[in-house]
Amino acid sequence: MKISTVFATLGGIGYLKPASGTWGSLAALPLAWALHVAGGPMLLLLACFAVFLAGVVATESHTARTGDHDPSEVVIDEVVGLWIAFLPVSFGAAHVGASLTALYPGWIMAFLAFRLFDIWKPGPVGWADRRSDAFGVMLDDVIAGVMAAVVVIVTAAFSHLVLM
C-alpha cells in the first residue's frame, strides 16, 4: 500500500464498512484529544492546516490510481472536518481551564453536527463536493466542519446563557 493511500485512508480505517466516513470521523476524535493535550487548541488549529494540505496531495495521488474522484475509503477529509468542528470545544476548554472530558456534550455535538452536514451537503458543502477533484474532496468537509463549529458555539452559548 502506498504511503498516500495509508494517509488518505487513515491507516486503512477508510476501508471499514458500512459508513466509512463515520468511522473516519470517530477515529478523528481521539486524535483531536491527543493534539489538544499535547499542545492545546493552537496545535489542533495548525494540524488542521497541515493535514488539509497533505490531504489534498494524498487524495490526488490516491484518486489518480483508483480513477474514482471521491472514493469512499478516503477519510482524511473527515479528520480535518471533525477537527474543525471540535475547535470550539478545544478553545473553550483551554479558556476556562477545564478538562476536555468535562465538555463531553461539545464532543457529541461536534460529531453529530459534522456528520449531518457532511452527509446532507447543504449549500456550499454540496458546491465544494461537486468540484470533482482532490481539493473539492477536502474542501467540502472543511466547510461542513465550519458549519458544525458554528452549531457547537450556538448550542454552547444557549446552554450556558439560557439553560444555566
UniProtKB/TrEMBL annotation:
Membrane topology (UniProt): Multi-pass membrane protein
Annotated Gene Ontology cellular component terms: plasma membrane
Pathway(s) of this molecule: Phospholipid metabolism; phosphatidylglycerol biosynthesis; phosphatidylglycerol from CDP-diacylglycerol: step 2/2
Protein name: Phosphatidylglycerophosphatase A
InterPro entries: PgpA (IPR026037), PgpA-like_sf (IPR036681), YutG/PgpA (IPR007686)
E.C. code: 3.1.3.27
Keyword Zinc included in the entry's annotation: no
Boundaries of every YutG/PgpA domain copy: 6-154
